[in-house]
Amino acid sequence: MVIMMKIRELQEKDISACAEILCSVYNNELWMCRWTKELAEEYLRDFFEHKKFVGYVTEEDSVIIAGLFAHEKIWWNNSEVFIEEMFVTPKKQGNGIGTALLKEVEKYIKEKQLAGITLSTNKYAPAPKFYEKNGFADCEHVIFMAKEV
After folding, report:
1. What topology does CATH give the domain 5-133?
2. Is the pLDDT at 2 greater than 80, yes or no?
3. pTM for this one?
4. Using an 8 Å Cβ cutoff, are 135 and 103 in contact?
5. In DSSP terms, which residues pair with 70 in a beta bridge?
């Protein structure tokens, strides 16, 4: 049996399937999230409606198994792509799907002659090791700050 996998640009009709994947990835003991499908759809729609949205899905036999939500961001010397969310169905993780999505963003960046990719992630989850394996580095000159009120 031949499995057909393809990456394509994300469309609005894909948001519902992506919301289901987001819930399956983050609603667990590691991430400790409590997403509802409705809230996840609203969350992802906010990214999709961004003026400079960049997004891709991976399909396996026409079923969405991964998504990437990002946007172009004007930055100091040259614009970049900021990845807001990237997720792969848990059963399919570790098979190069996330790496393939990142390569698709890299093609986009080269075509547009942008500076690169930035993102933030939970340092206590497996994600940092995945990103390091794909050439990302911890930027010592940048810190992520938050304030709870």
Report:
1. Aminopeptidase (3.40.630)
2. no
3. 0.91
4. no
5. 54, 83
